[in-house]
Amino acid sequence: MENKANTLFLSFESEEVTFFADLILPIPVPKLFTYRVPRGMAEVLKIGARVIVPFGKKNGRVLTAIVAKLHNTPPTGYQARYINEILDEYPLTTSYQLELFKWISEYYMCCIGEVMNVALPSGLKISSQSKVQFNPDFDYPELLTDFEATLLTELKKHPALSYEELERLMGEGSNVAALIKSLVGKKAIIVFEEVREKYIPKMVRKVRLHRTYEEREQLLVLLQRLEKLPKQQEVVMRYLSHVPMQRTPSLNQKGLDKTILNQDDELSQSSLSTLIKNQVFETFEVIQPRFADTDAGTPQAEIKLTDAQRAASVQIMSQFDSQNIVLLHGITGSGKTEVYIDLIQQALSGGSQVLYLLPEIALTTQIVVRLQRVFGDKMGIYHSKFSDNERVEVWKGVVSEQYQFVVGVRSAVFLPFDNLGLIIVDEEHETSYKQHDPAPRYHARDVAIMLAHWQQAKVLLGSATPSLETYYQAKQGRYGLVELFQRFGDATLPNIVLVNVQQEKKQKTMKQEFSSALLGALEANMERKEQSILFQNRRGYSPYMQCEDCDWTAECTNCAVSLTYHQRDAELRCHYCGHKESVPRVCPTCGSTKVKTIGFGTEKLEDQLQIFFPQSRVLRMDLDTTRAKNAYQQIIQEFEGGQVDILVGTQMITKGLDFDNVSLVGIFDADRLIHFPDFRATERAFQMITQVSGRAGRRAGRQGTVLIQTSNPQQPVLQKVIENNYKGLYEEELQERQNFNYPPFCRLIKLTVRHTDRAISQQAASRLATELTDALGSSRVLGPEEPLVERIRNQFLYDILIKIERDKVNIKAVKTFIQDRINDILTDKGLRQVSIVTDVDCL
C-alpha cells in the first residue's frame, strides 16, 4: 500500500535542496546512518525501500539498507556518502515493520540493524564481491615486476576476475592481495564491487506454436505438411492434446512446459528441436512460483465442527469483542486446529490477513497438508527449511496480496503484513518461540502481541499446557479464556502408567534401557498392528564415553562439556560448538581398552529396538535425522502411512503431531526433565510429558497407553500428569514463584559475560554486578556465577540475573541504566575484548 507521505517531493522554485536518508544497516551498531540522496533518486525514494550503500573503507563492501527516514539535515561528525542504488520501486518493508524493528531493538536491548538482519530473508540482502579488471589507460609496462606482468596478462583475457579466481590462476603460494595492492598503486588495474541480488526467480522454459498457426486453416495446413514427417506431427499433436487451442486459440500464448513434449525419447527431442528451428514452435521463459508443485491447488475439504468446537469458536469471537488477546486452553486431541481454521475463514472473509504461528518445522509439515486442503494456494508457508528464494517469494507474495494467510515458525512475525486481523500462536508455551542466538533474542509470541496491537488485530493463544505466565494473565482478566476439555470424536485421554525402573533393576527385568513393561507393551502393540512413539529428550547414542580404569571422560576441547557419542557416524561430537573427534580405541590417559559408553540417546534406543524386534520398522526423528530440507515431511509421511511401527524422537515429536494409529507412548528418563536446575523445570516437565502423552489414543473407541519410566513414581508432578491436573500444577507453581519473586511477578534480564581468559571474564562480571547492585539493590541482582556449562567455544561465561518487578519500576529506565553500565565495561581499555550478551525475558 503506497503512502504518499513516504514519497520525497522536491521543489525547485527557489533553490535546489539536498536530501538525506537515515538508513537501517544490518550491522550491530546502535544508530541509524545518514546518507546523501543522489539528485535523480530524490523523487522516487520511499521510506521502507531497500537501497545499496557503500560502507567501511573507500573500496570496502556494500550493504543492503532500509530507508527509515527522509529529511534535509546533514549529519554531524562525518561526511555523508551517496546511496548507490534503489532496489525497490515499491517498498518491501511496511511502516508497521519499521515500528516493530524499533520496538524489538529497544525491548530486547539490541541494535536495530541486528533486528533487520534477522528479519529480512537472505535473498533480500544484496551480496557484493570485489572484482579486478585491467585498466585500459595503463601504459607503463616497465614499472611491473614479473609476477605483476603475469597477473596483468591473465586479467587481459577476461572482462574481470574475483580475488578467488586470481588466486587459482596464479597458483598456491602467490600473494595475490599484495600484487593487487601494488598494481592499484601503479594504476594498472581497477578494483570495483560487483553487486548481485541473491534472489533468483525460478524460470521455466516453455514452448508454443508460432502465432501463424493459431488460425485454424493454417494449423490444418501444417498438419497436412507434416504427414510425411510422422515424428514431428506426433509432437504437434501431443502439444494440441495438452493445449486445446482449437477451441480457445488464446491458450497457445501460455504455452506448455518444454519437458512435457520431449520427455519420452531422444527422437521426439530431435523432432522438437527441428520444429523450433523451422519456426513452427517458439521457446520462451516464464517465472514460476516455487510452490506451484505443492498439493495446494483448489480448496476441497470442508471443516465440520463438533458442538464443543463450535461453542469454543463462538466464545472466542464473543470475547474478542472486549479482549484483544484470548487463550484457548484445550486438552490434547480436543481439535483446536479445526477451531483455528474456522476463525481463519471468518477473518479472511472479512478481508483481513491472518498469521498462524507454529513452534516447530515438524509440526508445520503435518498441519500444512491439512490447511492446504481448506485454503489451497492462497496460503503461504514460511520457515527456515525453505531456501532463500522460496522465502523471498512468500515475502513478496504478502506485499502483493497474493497471500492473505501465512503459516510459519517464529520468523514469520517479520513478514510485511499491513492489514492483519488475526494472529494465532499455537502451542504458545513452547520454548521454540524464543530465539537464543543471534540477537535479537526475541520471543515470537510477545512480538506477535505487539504486532497485533499496532495493526488492531486479535491474538489467539492456544495450548493444552499453557505457560504459567500466559495462564496467569488470563486468570487476572487481562486475556480472555476459553476452555475445550472434550477430545475430538469422543476419543478418551490415554491411560498413564508409571514404571519403577529402580524396582525392575533390582528384579533384573530391565533389558538395556527398556523395562519389561515397556517391551511387553511394544510387542503387544505390534501384534495389533498399531504404532508406538518413544520419547527421549537426548539425541546421539550416548551422552559420553568413560574409561572404567581411570575414569577419563571424553570432553570437548572448546567447551566444558562431554562429547556425545554418535555410533552411526562413528564419532564423538560436541552439541555446543560442533567439534568432532574420532572414537578412541584405547583410553588416551592410561591406555586401557575398557572405554565404554555411559547413558543413552535416541540413536541408542533405535539400535536396541532393532535387536529386540528385528522384524519391526523403526524410524528416528531428531536433529541428526532431519537436517535435509524435506526430511521432516518424509518421516511424517512414512509414519502416517503406516510404513513404520515405532517412532523414536526428541522433543520435536511432542509438539501437536496427530497420528490416528498411535496407541502407545513410552517416555524415558523422566527424572532428568523434572530435576533440571531451573525454576521452570517442573512446569516444563509437566508440559513435555503431557504433550507427548497426548499423541496416544487420538482415535475414538480406543484408549491409548502411556508408560513413563522413572526412578521415583511418587514425584508430585508425575501424579498431576496422571490426573491431567494443570490447574493444580499452576496453583502450586504460582505460589512458589511469588515466594521467590520469579515470573509472572517480575521480569528477568540475564547478562552473560564472555572472554577467553577466565580471570578477565570474572573481573568484568564482578564489576558489572557490583555497579548494578549498588543502584538496583541486592534483591534484584543475582550473581555473577558460572552457568552449568561455564566454557563454550573457548570463552568462559559468567551469568548475572536481574529481577525487575512488573508494577513498581520503570523498566525502560532500568534497561537504559543497564545498557550504560554495559557500555562502561566494553569501553574500558582492559576489558575491550569482553563480550556481554543480553537476554531479556530469558527462558
Question: What's the short story on this structure?
Answer:
The protein has 843 residues and is α/β, with parallel strands linked by helices. It has 25 helices and 34 strands.
Describe, in plain words, how this protein is organized in 3D.
- The chain has 843 residues and is α/β, with parallel strands linked by helices.
- It folds into seven domains: 4-126, PriA, 3(prime) DNA-binding domain (GIY-YIG endonuclease, 3-Layer(aba) Sandwich), CATH 3.40.1440.60; 128-196, Arc Repressor Mutant, subunit A (Orthogonal Bundle), CATH 1.10.10; 203-287, no CATH class; 307-488, 3-Layer(aba) Sandwich (Rossmann fold), CATH 3.40.50; 495-537 and 609-735, P-loop containing nucleotide triphosphate hydrolases (Rossmann fold), CATH 3.40.50; 542-599, no CATH class; 746-840, Alpha-Beta Plaits (2-Layer Sandwich).
- The strands form eight sheets. It has a seven-stranded parallel sheet with strand order 14-15-13-16-17-12-18, with helices on both faces. The protein has a six-stranded parallel sheet with strand order 19-29-28-20-27-26, sandwiched between helices.
